Amino acid sequence: MITVQQAEDIILSQTQDFGIEDIAYEHALGRVLAEDLTADRDLPPFDRPTVDGIAIRYAAYEKGSRSFPVKAIQSAGEASIPIDSETECIEIMTGAALDHSVDTVIRYEDISIDNGMANVSIDIKKGQNIHLKGRDKKEGNILVQANQIISPAIIGIASSVGKTTIAVKKLPKIIIISTGDEMVSPESIPSPYQLRRSNGITIKSALKKYHLEADILHLNDDYEEIKKEISRCIHEYDVLLISGGVSMGKFDYLPQVCEELGIEKLFHKIKQRPGKPFWFGKNQHQKLVFAFPGNPVSVFMCLHRYFIPWLEKSLEIQGNSPQFAVLQNDIEVPFALQYFVQVKLGTNQLGQLTAESVHTNGSGDFSHLADTNAFMELPLEQNSFKKGEVYRVWKYND
Amino acid sequence: MITVQQAEDIILSQTQDFGIEDIAYEHALGRVLAEDLTADRDLPPFDRPTVDGIAIRYAAYEKGSRSFPVKAIQSAGEASIPIDSETECIEIMTGAALDHSVDTVIRYEDISIDNGMANVSIDIKKGQNIHLKGRDKKEGNILVQANQIISPAIIGIASSVGKTTIAVKKLPKIIIISTGDEMVSPESIPSPYQLRRSNGITIKSALKKYHLEADILHLNDDYEEIKKEISRCIHEYDVLLISGGVSMGKFDYLPQVCEELGIEKLFHKIKQRPGKPFWFGKNQHQKLVFAFPGNPVSVFMCLHRYFIPWLEKSLEIQGNSPQFAVLQNDIEVPFALQYFVQVKLGTNQLGQLTAESVHTNGSGDFSHLADTNAFMELPLEQNSFKKGEVYRVWKYND
């Protein structure tokens, strides 16, 4: 049986490039940016007042002028208005384009205007209250680097620079396949020995964060049906995310079916709890099969610990650093498997992320998935974990 | 001029209840749950083996039996199969419903089966490897509490309990209005004294996190047009989110227009940077106007510091605790305003959230909104902030 680290290494060695497509910027939120966004002109594109008031030529003030005839009022969006003589001023609004004949702006709060004369009674500095052309960025400078998830701020920047079509990463084509004769649809009334399905819709919902619209399929434990459908799906999709059918049961057909279809096993079983029977493979066309054990907690853990990192690395998403939290209670682990414990995250006033573990009844107990936020990964080498120790966490429910 | 805390108090005293609606669970991701989700039967609903193997009656083992004739193979999803005599066993799969005639399960790994006899050679415990009926939750117990954002895990739980229609909070009807003659559409080539609009699409994108689809409108600095449109919008929408037109400029008509339309000013101007000229009001029908100053950074700050908390409180979203981070560099603030500095968040191996401030050229400089993640709120009482100190942060770009 391999370790969690070995499993991660094998999975992350199978990342793939799904290409790039151009889409309208209004639809790009949440997609992965595939090009740098650059300034199409200097930012700001002109010298602009940062306040409402008057614009003067500082040389006149320096020579003693304190009253300036108002030549004109210039609003934002108008062509720049020059002064004709050094001692004139322009009433000017925030965001207007300053003319080269003026070089200093004084706020309305610091002047009075009477009979067309603006009177200045405070000390001023040359060049004050002006946001200079090109001060933030020069034309051609990078504003947003490629390989990050497109946020509201990035949409706003794209809009500012007229980038109305954006190159984004294409997403893999994914089907989620749940298995198990005991699983009925959520609309059904289950018999006393049946359960309603949830793994498919849970995974589908989790992938929406990446704007990935996965298909869903449920298969009963019928060998021929499973073989036929896996054979079809491995042709039609890039990735199969399967739950169930990979353990020791008499009807756990998946490993055998995959082998018969030429899907090479890259590993089966990891020294971890939950999720030990996880099976992972690929075929000769680099189609991948993530076959998770069927319990809801196992599926959720394997999805966040293995599939999401594979997806983020395939899409080349940068800037996600590992997250650590401070354990809030002692934990004893009475087995030799790397344990992923469900925790409730919080923050304290030291700016630390805190993690309080919850007691569960194993991987079939999904009743705490909604009131926890993360799995804390407790190292395999230890059995005893103490309050105050810091370990890595894998967030969900974000 | 009021303080940030006073502004927050005024805004949060204006929260509103927009009611509840029922929607299909497949469309509920990201909405706010308006009812508790409860277990429709015990969880698990039957005694279920947690491993694949054989089910026996412990009393037989206790009396010395080590070889058990296999009466039948029971898969998950089948009705329970009883043993006929105490010394028989059932081959049984994970997730099947255990019959009352058996009470202990032994894994395939710990037995051998020859000629229809299962041979046990290890020590076992009564009741082992069984996830007992009702062990996680009893019928009627709350699985998910109301007033939280519906996550993938909650969708999965809803599916499990057959809750295919879910009560969620209705969302307010919102229009985002940008103003300014200098602002042209992102598709346009601006003149040297024009800029492309971005505030509308930025706010609209930020609200999508709450599945809130806001309308967008741009108005030029035309008094009559502004008055006509604000008058229409205040009837048609619950909330107006406006950018620009609230400062000292000759064409900053909004405060006057609002007053003439009977929209009561609750405050104008806050002791903060950016965002000082923020205007907030309501009319007699509790319609709200958040009128932010027009610079992109001011809009972004006011949105996250004031509007989002108002929205989350109105929707009664629980469980969001304040976030704090450790400042990574010294900052001097040379003005008597509460400063919101843009920071890049990170985490360190102590589980602490870290915040590195970036230098910007004022509220018109939006070039750092994409490479930062939060505003750090630096207390008004101080001017000097040191590396290692911990302050509150308001996240964006999540």
UniProtKB/TrEMBL annotation, chains A, B:
Reaction catalysis annotation: adenylyl-molybdopterin + molybdate = Mo-molybdopterin + AMP + H(+)
GO-annotated cellular components: cytosol
MoaB/Mog domain segment(s): 175-314
GO biological process: Mo-molybdopterin cofactor biosynthetic process
Keywords assigned: Magnesium, Metal-binding, Molybdenum, Molybdenum cofactor biosynthesis, Transferase
Entry GO MF terms: metal ion binding; molybdopterin molybdotransferase activity
EC annotation from Swiss-Prot or TrEMBL: 2.10.1.1
One Pfam family, short name: MoeA_C
InterPro entries found in the cross-reference section: MoaB/Mog-like_dom_sf, MoaB/Mog_dom, MoeA-like, MoeA_C_domain_IV, MoeA_C_domain_IV_sf, MoeA_linker/N, MoeA_linker/N_sf
Pathway participation: Cofactor biosynthesis; molybdopterin biosynthesis
Role: Catalyzes the insertion of molybdate into adenylated molybdopterin with the concomitant release of AMP.
Family per record: Belongs to the MoeA family.
Name of the protein: Molybdopterin molybdenumtransferase
Gene: moeA
